[in-house]
UniProtKB/TrEMBL annotation:
Root EC class: transferase
Keyword Transcription regulation: no
InterPro entries, per the entry: Glutathione-S-Trfase_C-like (IPR010987), Glutathione-S-Trfase_C_sf (IPR036282), Glutathione_S-Trfase (IPR040079), Glutathione_S-Trfase_N (IPR004045), GST_C (IPR004046), Thioredoxin-like_sf (IPR036249)
Family, per entry: Belongs to the GST superfamily.
Enzyme Commission number(s) of this protein: 2.5.1.18
Domain GST C-terminal residues, every copy: 88-206
UniProt xrefs under SUPFAM superfamilies: GST C-terminal domain-like (SSF47616), Thioredoxin-like (SSF52833)
Protein name: glutathione transferase
Pfam families listed in its UniProt record: GST_C, GST_N
Amino acid sequence: MVIKVYGAPTAWTQLVICVLEEKKVPYDYIFVDIFNGEQKSPEFLEKQPFGQTPYIDDEGFILYESRAIAIYIATKYVDQGTPLIPSDIKAQALFHQAASVEVSRFNGPALAAAMEKLYNPVYNGLECDQAVFEKNVAQLGLKLDVYERVLAKQKYVAGDELTLADLYHLPYGRLVGIAGTDLMTSRPNVNRCAVRILSGMVILNN
């Protein structure tokens, strides 16, 4: 049997699919119609009690939260595809450092900017508050200035090898570009890293 991914074409489902592709793990993608509230149905909530996508079903083992899924896949299939989690203790420490930076520095303003410009108009029927969007873009820009200096010395955020820490940046990193900013492209080292990561991304349409 293959891993079943229950998701929608949203940022974090994209992350799970990307990890599966990097690890060369077979999977079935089962589309969840979030526009019509399928993720709030009793059947879905039985598997994912918060009513969000994605979750996976690995031969009866149910797991949700994209980062947890990513670590599970990278650990279970450690001997195939791209390693994604280093085995050397120092390299692993740098991986955890980069993953922590993504959560504490990058994710907040990137999520807020994407929510304001893309999600609120599409999913919530709300107009974009341009001031809120620009505030978060400015905050994210300051963080990416630091990334630019880090990436001048190495290929990826945790060193010279691709890890989950890089892929964690992928969902909202892509969306802030779609939102019309030049946050990535205006920083050569950040852009170079982003292009490497995005080149292997599978685009979900439904």
